[in-house]
Amino acid sequence: MNSLLTKVLTLFMAFAASLPGQQVIDGVAAIVGERIILKSDILQLANMAAIQNRVNLLQQPGALELFQSQALESIITQYILVAQAKIDSLDDIDPEQVDQALDQQMDQIMAQVGTEENFFTAVGQTVRDFRREKWDTIRDQLIAEKFRAEKIKPVTISRPEVRAFFEAYKDSLPAIQTRAEISQLALIIEPGPESRASALVTINDLRAQLSGGADFSILASSYSEDPGSAARGGELGLVLRSELVPAFERAAFNLGPDEISDVVRSKFGYHIIQAIDKQGEKINVRHILITAKPSAQDRQLALDQVRELYFILQEEPALFDSLATGLAASSGREGEAASPYVGWVELGQLPSEAYRSALFGAKPGDITPPFETSDGFHILKIHDIKEGGPANLEGYYPQIESLALQQKQAQYLNSWLIMARKQLFIKIL
After folding, report:
1. Hey, where are the domains in the chain?
2. Which of 72, 123, 204, 227 has a CA positioned 20 to 30 A from the CA of residue 292?
3. Largest Cα–Cα separation, the chain
4. What is the torsion angle, in degrees rounded to the nearest 10, for the CA atoms of residue 50, residue 55, residue 59 and residue 64?
């Protein structure tokens, strides 16, 4: 898969960057199995690829055809991976993971456009509508990536293969980036009692409206903060019992046909659930989700706490691991952060500029001052740093081995895709 289009597909799938003065006539461009690819999908992805590649399509109109061709192939590849993932039962994705990925994409887009008004001008949709529409797209991307990782997992590489790779590509290999070995203390900004109380007032008001005869689907479409279901009137579709968080599962499976639950609290927020259908261990329900959002006061409390932790670490740096692990456990994230150790990361691959700024000028043994990202405050502990430089086997064998393995995995996956295309109905119109 073309590397540029892979990156763009992951980060900006379906971000509308319409060409000035261009009128888009939508229609079906291709069919992959039971799914269709619209011309607008291809144009949006092609435009975004042009922007990422700094190509002005008004000045180079002939380039659009190339970008569209690459975009079509990228979308077809994703649909093939998703279709096979479903066959192999590898299409189970945690909705929270989808939400997080969507949040990251929204943050990246907003960083480019600046304001919600500019967002609407660029995309032609409000932020809320965009989130609702693109939730399923993001889920597909995660499914495709999960299946891809599973498919290439058996592929390994030997030392002679790494050496052969280096000899073949040593003149074109990029310089190795500087890497850092780090641990992380993360303090997520959580909504406080007042924020939770405000969300509870909202959900109770909606429950009262339902008791008064309001239409569940209309309220879900208008107020639910679950981007994956709100556009469908809150309907989830048939899901397995195991796919639901415990509190939601208990309430949903105890409902009779068309019955509406009381307010249910889960780790996602507050829900109202209406039963639609039940088939053994599967259930279809509608729900309305209202989340508690951190306030400015909640942010200030988190900032005060992380400053206090940094002060302690200045005096007792050996407490870093225990403080980070205890913080994760106290916020209910112990499963996500059994250890604060992150490992080796390339500075260019860090999740945001805030991380790179924190590590600028850092030395092994340093503990960075607190810094803020979209999800909270962070402190990093630097175990070691390895400066980058021209690729060579003596100094950078692990990095070259990784590049060689990636190439071998890509060749393996491409061979599999050729066979998979023959087994799936694909028609380009």
Report:
1. 3-152, 159-172+390-428, 179-192+295-386, 193-290
2. 123
3. 75
4. -30
Length of the chain: 429
Which CATH number applies to 179-192+295-386?
A: 3.10.50.40
Fold match flag (3-152 vs 179-192+295-386): no
Q: Is pLDDT at 346 greater than 70 in this prediction?
A: yes
Instruction: Give the pLDDT of residue 168.
Output: 95
Confidence (pLDDT) at 113: 63
Return mean pLDDT, the chain.
85
Does 5 have pLDDT greater than 50?
Answer: no
Give burial (CB, 10 Å; 0-12/13-18/19+) of 187.
buried
- Whether the model pTM is above 0.70: no
Q: Out of 3.30.160.20, 3.30.465.10, 3.10.50.40, 3.20.20.140, which CATH number does the structure's domain 193-290 have? A: 3.10.50.40
